Amino acid sequence: MNKIESICIIDDDPITVFGIQKMLSLVVDCDDITVYRNGRLAIDGIKSRIEENKKAPQVIFLDINMPIMDGWQFLDEFITLPLHEKVRVNIITSSIDSFDLQNWEDFKKKTCHTITFNNKPIRKEHVAEITKIA
Amino acid sequence: MNGTKTIANNPLVKQLPTATVFTNKKFEVIYASDKFLSDFSFDSQHTFGKPINELFTTLSDNWENKLYNCLSDKSHNVNVSYNLNSATDSKWYKWSCTAWQNEANETIGLIIHFEDITDKKLKEEQVNTLQSLLDAMCEISKIGVWDYDIINNKLICCDVIRQIHDVSEDYEFSFDSALSAYKDGYSRNTVSMLVHETMTKGTSWNEKLQFRTAKGKEIWVQVAGMPTFMDGKIVGIKGTLQNIEKQVQSETKTKENELLLRTLVDNLPLNVFIKDTESRKILVNRSECDYMGVDNPDELLGKSDFELFNKDIALISRAEDLQVMETLTPILGRETINETKDGRISTFLTSKIPLKGNNGKAQGLVGISMDISDLKQKEQELRDLINVTSQQNKKLVNFAHIVSHNLRSHTANFSMLLDFLANEKNEEEKSNIIKMLTQASDNLLETLENLNEVVAINTNINLEKKPIRLNQRIVSVKRNLKAFLVNNNAKIVNAISEHTSIKVIPAYIDSILMNFITNAVKYKHPDRPPLITLSTTNENGYITLSIEDNGLGIDLKKYGDKLFGMYKTFHDHSDSRGIGLYITKNQIEAMNGKVTVASKVGVGTTFKIYFNEQN
C-alpha cells in the first residue's frame, strides 16, 4: 500500500467525506487525514500547520461548491502559500459546468502543484490512482 | 469770240435769287448771278469769260458730252451733280441746263441753274442707312415687320414675314390672306378682334398665337400691332411677327419636365425640401407638408427651422446646414431626431446636399429625410426581445446546471454508498451506511422540493399582479415572525407611508418580506441587537423597497456574484440552506422587478427591491 504522510479532505457534504475516507482506508497507508468543511477552514488549518512546522498535506481532496469559501477561492489563496514541496490537489465534484473546467485549466497554468479534475461518483480504484505524492 | 461779245454782267441775271450762269457755246461764262458767285466763292474778275470746266475742276468725265447735248436739243435738261468740298463739309449741287436762245430762236449758249441738294442728299443717305439697319435687324432677330394701309387696303411685309409664312420672295400679301394664316378658332378670332380694335379704338397689342404656314406647318408666332395716325386719324396698322415655335417648344418641354419633377418629388415617400443660404425653406414636397401638419406649402415656405422647430433642434439643424454649405460636402444618411412644435418625436435618416451656384459657392441645399421612427421602434422592440430572450436563456442554462449539479451529487452519493453496502461485511458499518443512504434520500427530496418551487415561480409567470397595501403585508409578516423576532431581540423600523400601494403577486411579496427579514436577523452582528429599517422611494416607474440592516454585512467583492445563486451560503451557519435569496430573486424577476444589494462588512446590508409598476 502506498504510504502518504498527510492527506486533507475539503468538502461540506458529510456523505462524500465519509466515502473518501472509507476508500482511502482501503487503498493507502496514512495516519494523518484532516477534514475541513469549507475552503476558509482549510486555508486557516493549513496555515497554522505551517506555523507549527508541521508538514503540509501531500494530497488534498477538494470540493468546489462550498459555503463561505468555495474550492476556487481556496485555490486562489492556497497557491500563494510558501510551500517547499509539490502538493497534489484532486478536485472532486459533480459539476459538469464548462466554467469549472476552464477554471481548472487556468489554475494548472498558474501553479507548480499538480491539480486533477475528477467527476463524481468516484470508485476505489480511481482514488488509489490519484492518491500519491505529486 | 465768234458772234458773241463779251458784255458786262446783265443786271437782271445778276439779281436772280438762284445760282445761275449764262455761257456761250464754248461754255465760257457770260452772265452770272451774284448768288452763283457767292455760293461758289468766285471772284467776279476771274469768272466772266472763263470756261466752266476751268471754274469747276472736279467735274465728272462726261460732263462735256452732256452739255453739248443740251446745246443741240433745247428741250434737254441735264442733271450734273457737283460735289463741292471745303475744309468743314461737302455740298451737293444739281445742275439744270437749258439752251440759251436769242430772238431768232438760235442757240447761243447755255443757261445753267445750280441747286443746293446737300440736305436732300443727306436725308436720302439717312433713309438708306435706316432701311439697311431695319433690314439687318429683321434678318438677325427674325422679327418681321408689316404695315397695313387701311385706306388703300394694302399690306406691305418684309422678307422675314415671307419666310415665316413660307412663301416665295415675290409673293404679295393681301390683308385677308395674312389673317387667314392664323389657326382657325381662338388664334384667328383673337387676331381679327385685335385688328378691329386697333382700327376703331387705336389700341396696341402683343399676342402669342398659333399659325399655319403656306405649306401647312403649324407654328407658334408672337404678333404685335399698333395704329398709324395721320392728322389724328387712324390710317393704318403696323406691327411685327416672330416665329417663336422653338421657344414655345422648349418652354413646353421645360414645363413638362417641371411637372414630371414636381410629381416625382411630391409622391416620393420621403420628406424633400430646399433651403436658401439663411436656411429658409424655398421648396417643400407633400410628405414634408404632411409631416409638418400643414395643408399648403406656403405655410412653410420662407420659414427657417427656428420658426418651425424648438430652438435646440433648430440649432443643430442650422449647424448642419452651414457645414454642408461651407464645405460643399453633403451629409448622407445621418440619423437625426426631430421634434415638432406639437411634441411629436421622430427619427429620420437625413441627407443634405449643397446646391452650387454659378460662382461655385453654395446658394442653398437640398434635404431628403426618411422617417424611420417605425423601424427604430421595431429595432428597439427586437432589442428588448433579444435582451429578454438572452436573459431567459441565461436563467435556463443556470437552472440546468443547478439541476444537473444537485441531482448528480446526490446520485453520486447513492451510487457510492450502495457500492460500499454491497461489499461491507461488518453489520455495524452496514447499518451506518444505510443511515447515510436515508439521509441522502432526504437531501434529494429536499433538493427536488426546492427546484420545484423555482420551476413553479418561473412557469406561473401569468399569475396576476394586484395592487396591495405594503404596510398590511409587513404587519402580517411581522405577526408570523413574532416569536423569532422577540427571541433575537430584533426591532423593525417601518418608515413606509400608510398609503403606499404596490402591484405584486401577493404570495410572492409575503415570501420576499419573510426572507429578507429573517436573513437580516439570522446574520445579525454579535455585538448589537438586529435593527431593520424599511422605507420606499418612487423612481422611474418603479417603487423601490429598501430593507436596511445592521448585521454582519457581506464582502460583495468576494461574494457579490454568488449572493443570489442557488446553494450558496456565506456565513458559517448550520441553518443556511442557500436557497432563500435564489427563490426571492426569481420571484422578484417574475414580477418584472429587480433587486440590488449594498453592504459593508461589520456595518450592515441594504437590499433594494424594485417593483415594476408599469407591467
Keywords:
heterodimer; A: 134 residues; alpha/beta; Rossmann fold; five-stranded parallel beta sheet; 5 helices; globular; B: 615 residues; alpha+beta; Beta-Lactamase; five-stranded antiparallel beta sheet; disordered N terminus; CheY-like_superfamily (chain A); DNA-binding response regulator (chain A); DNA-binding (chain A)
Task: Please write out the topology.
The complex is a heterodimer of chains A (134) and B (615).
Chain A (H helix, E strand, L loop, with lengths): L1 E2 L2 E5 L3 H14 E2 L2 E5 L2 H13 L7 E4 L8 H8 L9 E6 L4 H13 L3 E6 L4 H7 L4
Parallel strand pairs in A: 1-3, 2-4, 2-5, 5-6, 6-7
Helix pairs in contact in A: 1-5, 2-3
Chain B lengths: L10 H4 L4 E6 L4 E4 L1 H7 L11 H4 L7 H10 L5 E8 L4 E12 L5 E10 L1 H24 L1 E7 L4 E4 L1 H7 L9 H6 L5 H16 L3 E8 L5 E13 L2 E11 L1 H23 L3 E6 L4 E4 L1 H7 L12 H4 L2 H17 L3 E9 L5 E12 L5 E10 L1 H51 L3 H33 L6 E4 H11 L1 H6 L3 E4 L6 E4 L1 H17 L8 E9 L2 E8 L6 H4 L20 H11 L3 E7 L3 E9 L3
Parallel strand pairs in B: 17-19
Antiparallel strand pairs in B: 1-2, 1-5, 3-4, 4-5, 6-7, 6-10, 8-9, 9-10, 11-12, 11-15, 13-14, 14-15, 16-18, 19-20, 20-22, 21-22
Helix pairs in contact in B: 13-14, 14-19, 15-17, 17-19
